[in-house]
Fold Antibiotic biosynthesis monooxygenase.
Amino acid sequence: MSTPPSHPVTVAITRQVDPQDEILMQAWADAGTTMAQRFPGFLGSGWVRPSAGSHEWHMLYRFDSAESLSRWEGSRERTQWLGAGARLVRATRVEHRTGIEGWFDEPTEIEVADTVAAPPRWKQMVVIFCAFFPTSVVLTYALAGPTAGWPGWGRVLLTCAVAIPWMTYVFLPFVTRLFSPWTHPRRAG
């Protein structure tokens, strides 16, 4: 009997940090990442906080299998590292993710110390419209001839198959950068 295949595991930890300890916490988290990188199967880590004044930090790390994760979590290095941070951070929630909820975690290191607030939804809507409308018009005319006898669902399927990658990887990032001065205006002062 063969052993079942192992899947990547993402560990999500919510930690509380006092504002006066943020710089120390960041150095502590970086030290943990440096150690974890030396363990086989390490895929990446990151941390974010919901807003600039939040005491809550969300930390992630990812290993290629439960076995690799277990070696890291049971290591002497990690135990000592956690001990060194005991006065800086308090873990309030720990989750191990192996299913679909872990698919969208980036397997790279991401550090966001000061998050930029998202623009208002109505501005986001305008930017998306400015990318979606011309794409829809062009595809409607470009695909009209080749799909003339197709059922409606087939034309929509082909349009989506072309539009979604185009919008995701090329046009929407371009339009977002183009509109950035409007969506994220610099504050005077």
Summary: Helices lie at 22-36, 66-73, 76-84, 121-144, 152-183. Confidence is low (pLDDT under 50) at residues 100-116. The longest strand covers residues 9-17.
